[in-house]
Specification:
mainly alpha, about 120 residues
Length: about 120
């Protein structure tokens, strides 16, 4: 894969290249990762083979979650036990039933939802 250093291609995807102290609009690492996420997301995800190398053979894969509603686990006002995402993960893990994953809250874990581009 070739590295795309054309800032206009990033801007088209709403990836804003930092302009402060960057007169040549050089692409930063975070910008590049966001670009890959938009143009070739499978490059950023482990394959099933790679995952199975890290997970014991007797541990079944229940599901994969890509989109979810993120709230900080460190938010004292709303601990994980009160957050839908963690409650649903707990239900799925304790039952082994992926069909219980039925979130109501809108997914917000995309980098586009965060000012810094990071969670």
């Amino acid at each position: 894969m070739l590295f795309d250093s054309n800032a206009e291609n990033y801007e088209r995807l709403r990836i804003h290249i930092q302009s402060d102290d960057n007169p040549n609009q050089l692409i930063g690492f975070g910008d590049f990762v966001r670009y890959l996420h938009e143009t070739n997301p499978q490059l950023l995800c482990a394959t099933e083979t790679e995952l199975r190398k890290l997970i014991p053979n007797d541990l079944p894969k229940i599901m994969t979650i890509h989109d979810f509603h993120y709230s900080s686990a460190y938010d004292k006002a709303t601990p994980p036990s009160q957050q839908e995402t963690y409650q649903l993960i707990a239900k799925v893990l304790t039952t082994g039933d992926a069909s219980l994953w039925k979130p109501v809250e809108e997914p917000n874990n995309s980098w586009k939802n965060w000012n810094s581009g990071n969670l």
